Amino acid sequence: MTTELCERVKARLVESGQEELLKESLKTKLASCGWRDELKAEARKLIRDRGLTNVTIDELHAHLMPKARSTIPDQIKKEVFYELREFVRHSCNIHP
């Protein structure tokens, strides 16, 4: 996708309210499969190991993001990509 096309899709997602719906759907799916709890446990472990005052938000973010991205279940990725494709197809008159 070109930058212009991405901007157009993003604007349409925001205008339609679909962006928020997709975010909420993703949050629900990730919570229901235990993904969110796993990351919370990982964050708590890092804080416990280093001490609360010895971990910055940036360090916590840097530690968690690779695991967060790599452990999203494939089925959830497929569902979200499908929802996005359908939105683009029906709302933006773009056929990927």
UniProtKB/TrEMBL annotation:
Pfam families: EnY2 (PF10163). It is found in: Nucleus, Nucleoplasm. It comes from Varroa destructor (Honeybee mite). Keywords: Activator, Chromatin regulator, mRNA transport, Nucleus, Protein transport, Transcription, Transcription regulation, Translocation, Transport. This is Transcription and mRNA export factor ENY2. The keyword Transport applies. One of its GO terms (cellular component) is transcription export complex 2. GO terms for biological process: chromatin organization; mRNA export from nucleus; protein transport; transcription elongation by RNA polymerase II. Belongs to the ENY2 family. Involved in mRNA export coupled transcription activation by association with both the TREX-2 and the SAGA complexes. The transcription regulatory histone acetylation (HAT) complex SAGA is a multiprotein complex that activates transcription by remodeling chromatin and mediating histone acetylation and deubiquitination. Within the SAGA complex, participates to a subcomplex that specifically deubiquitinates histones. The SAGA complex is recruited to specific gene promoters by activators, where it is required for transcription. GO terms for molecular function: transcription coactivator activity. It comes from the Eukaryota. The keyword Protein transport applies. Component of the nuclear pore complex (NPC)-associated TREX-2 complex (transcription and export complex 2). Component of the SAGA transcription coactivator-HAT complex. Within the SAGA complex, participates to a subcomplex of SAGA called the DUB module (deubiquitination module).
